[in-house]
Amino acid sequence: MGRRWRNYRCRFASRFCLMIKDKGKNDVGIIVCVLLLYSLNRFVLKKIVNVPILSYLLKSHFNDWLGGIFIIAYINFVLQHSQYEQIQICAISHAILINALCSIIWEFVGPYIFRYGTSDLLDVLAYIVGGITYILIQHLLTNGKRAA
């Protein structure tokens, strides 16, 4: 089983494309930035921005975009500190899939569970764009370097 399992594990890990070992540090920084931007938007920006389109985006979709970034950063942080540390989400297709599933559950199942929930397809799009943004940020922070 050893050799077969090792070959399977290598193929599986290569599909998720391995990133450099310092990636976990980037995830903590991204999570902190997302939480700071969320707080800034929630308590300051929504109240003071009066530009029509910008105000609409800040009130309706900005936090969902941040949520898409947060979801992938959090998953990668948890993976980095688990037995699956060699697996990281760094492909745009994987980020899109994960955020699409999470946002569909949140946007379409959530309103049946929570009284204040509403469904919005643009929120689903904002989550997906957030996931893509995370991948682009990671690529910039790591300069495209990958572990061998």
Question: What report would you give on this structure?
Answer:
- Helix content is 76%, strand content 0%.
- By secondary structure, the chain is mainly α.
- The radius of gyration is 17 Å and the shape is globular.
- The two termini are 24 Å apart.
- The model is unreliable at 3-21 (pLDDT under 50).
Radius of gyration: 17 Å
The ordered H/E elements are HHHHHH
Give me the number of helical elements. 6
The residue fraction in helices comes out at: over 70%
> Shape, please?
globular
Low-confidence stretches: 3-21
Number of strands: 0
Quote the distance from N terminus to C terminus. Answer: 24 Å
> Could you tell me the strand content as a percent range?
under 5%
Give average pLDDT, whole number: 83
Question: Which tags fit this structure?
Answer:
single chain; 148 residues; mainly alpha; 6 helices; 76% helix; globular; disordered N terminus
Topology:
Elements lengths: L1 H14 L7 H26 L3 H9 L1 H19 L11 H22 L7 H22 L6
Brief summary of the model shown:
The chain has helices spanning 2-15, 23-48, 52-60, 62-80, 92-113, 121-142. It is an all-alpha fold and 148 residues long. Mean pLDDT is 83; it is low at 3-21.
